[in-house]
Design brief:
490 residues, Serine Threonine Protein Phosphatase 5, Tetratricopeptide repeat, 10 strands, single chain, two-stranded antiparallel ribbon, globular
């Protein structure tokens, strides 16, 4: 039986297990241990491929399908998505009890699997220069590992602490830059600024290493991805000039999709907008333990857990091609009766839907927002209109907006365009805003009976207090197990 290798976590052991869906191959044939893993660039490439698959596909349970589970959590902890009451999946997360509760399996999973990815990256970065292979292959592998490590640290610092602009000196997460062993002491929490410094240093180093790299699969980080990650970091740091510049570079060669493409299900990396995404082959899909199992509301069976808020639909203009993806379920025999079905995400027939990680629309909106915050209103509107035209909307005129009004319009556009892709909670945190949930008042009629479209049903925090900005309920928690095993956390 082939073996699979989990990355090391500080204080953990090297684990081996039989191959199964969601775990990743580290060797083209047989098992590799110790120095064999890093002996050749071919082996390291297999480890990197496996690490990417581990990040995206590993699942400790049906409702924790890898990084896609984090994206789903960050949506249902916001204003515009709803976890259906009584349905398996994300109800506790929607209600802010999980992963806020550090004793849950979700809290443990989110922490440990991301640090396992970091440790695999650290091993590649440390060992690839001594591997047998071409200099170009070594550069490209190191650059990809640095970019992936930067991406995970950027995720962690935005999940486990408040935003950079609120308090860059706040304690966030530990930084590991070398491979760990079972005897490696756990590290203390670094400050928010230290983590962002690490992210940017990794990206600055990765950029030159990836010059000339031509990937064959879009789940590999390349120079566009590096620029896109830098744009995200600079946006959160409120470094508007750098955010705009990097976002523009990131979307080079990735045009905004035409309106006719928008209704095709957001499930394939061949989409011209996808700068970074994770494809799956039929034999790699996880069925019920997958991103699409929860967010695709079109099949007759399945969890279909995550719905759009009717109040979210109200922020779309009637002419918007995206508004055509909403429909109220009026079939009283259907489990989704009276819910608003939003069909942005539609899985492939074989359940192997691809997961979007970065699109040119997001980068365009980073550029537009940054220019608006720099008070370059004409430039911001020109950029924004580039997206609006592809969504069948008329151009805006900068003369009709004050700076605050234009910023708000761009932020609404982020909500319209990026729903379901994991940006809702990070945006609320970086903007230091509160979740806004109101009961649905939209009506529909079946025969002579008037019904109310179902909407939000969790309108308070677990302690029954109102939603407010910068609440600890928005933060993911360091798991209880990690606190117990790492005495240096403080």
């Amino acid at each position: 039986m082939k073996k699979t290798l989990y990355g090391l976590l500080a204080g953990s052991v090297l684990l081996f297990a039989s191959c199964k869906k969601g775990w990743f191959e580290t060797s083209p044939s047989g098992s590799l241990t110790g120095s064999e893993i890093y002996a050749t660039t071919k082996n390291i490439d297999a480890l990197l491929n496996g690490t990417l698959r581990y990040l995206m596909e590993t699942a400790t349970s049906q409702d924790n399908p890898g990084y896609g589970s984090i994206l789903l959590s960050q949506e249902v902890m916001g204003s515009d998505a709803i976890a259906r009451d009584g349905v398996y999946g994300y109800l506790a997360t929607y209600g802010f009890t999980d992963p806020f509760d550090n004793t849950t399996r979700r809290a443990l999973f989110y922490w440990t699997f991301q640090y396992k990815v970091i440790d695999n990256c650290n091993g590649i970065i440390e060992n690839v220069d001594n591997a047998t292979g071409t200099d170009a292959d070594k550069r490209y592998l190191k650059g990809q590992a640095l970019a992936l490590r930067a991406s995970v640290y950027l995720n962690l610092v935005r999940q486990y602490q408040f935003t950079y602009a609120k308090d860059k000196n706040a304690k966030s997460v530990p930084i590991y830059t070398e491979p760990t062993t079972p005897s490696t002491p756990g590290k203390a929490r670094a400050t928010v600024q230290e983590v962002y410094d690490r992210v940017l240093e990794d990206l600055r180093t990765a950029g030159p290493l990836l010059e000339g790299f031509k990937r064959t699969v879009k789940n590999r980080p390349d120079l566009n991805v590096v620029n896109g990650l830098a744009a995200r970091a600079f946006l959160t740091m409120e470094n508007w000039d750098s955010a705009a510049a990097r976002a523009k570079l990131a979307r080079t060669s990735y045009p905004i999709m035409e309106a006719t493409e928008y209704s095709k299900g957001f499930s394939d990396v061949t989409n011209v907008e996808w700068i970074w995404g994770h494809p799956q082959a039929t034999d790699q899909n996880l069925g019920g333990a997958s991103f699409f199992a929860y967010i695709d509301v079109t099949p007759a069976t399945g969890y279909r857990s995550i719905m759009a808020d009717p109040n979210f639909k109200a922020i779309f203009d009637d002419a918007d091609v995206r508004k055509k993806l909403f429909r109220i379920n009026t079939d009283a025999t259907n489990a989704l009766y009276a819910w608003l079905q939003y069909t942005k995400f539609v899985n492939k027939a074989d359940q192997s839907g691809h997961i979007p990680l970065m699109r040119s629309s997001e980068q365009l909106l980073i550029e537009a927002e940054s220019k608006a915050r720099l008070n370059q209103l004409n430039d911001a509107v020109i950029v924004l209109n580039g997206l609006r035209a592809k969504r069948t909307l008329p151009d805006l005129d900068a003369a009709n907006f004050t700076q605050p009004q234009l910023i708000e319009e761009i932020l609404r556009e982020r909500r319209r365009e990026l729903w379901g892709e994991g940006f809702e909670l990070p945006d609320l945190l970086r903007l230091q805003r509160a979740v806004v949930r109101t009961v649905s008042t939209e009506k529909f009629t079946v025969g002579t009976k008037e019904e109310t479209v179902k909407g939000h049903h969790q309108l308070k925090f677990p302690d029954k207090s109102d939603f407010v900005p910068n609440s600890n309920y928005y933060l993911f928690s360091i798991p209880f197990n990690e606190i117990n095993s790492n005495p240096n956390l403080n």
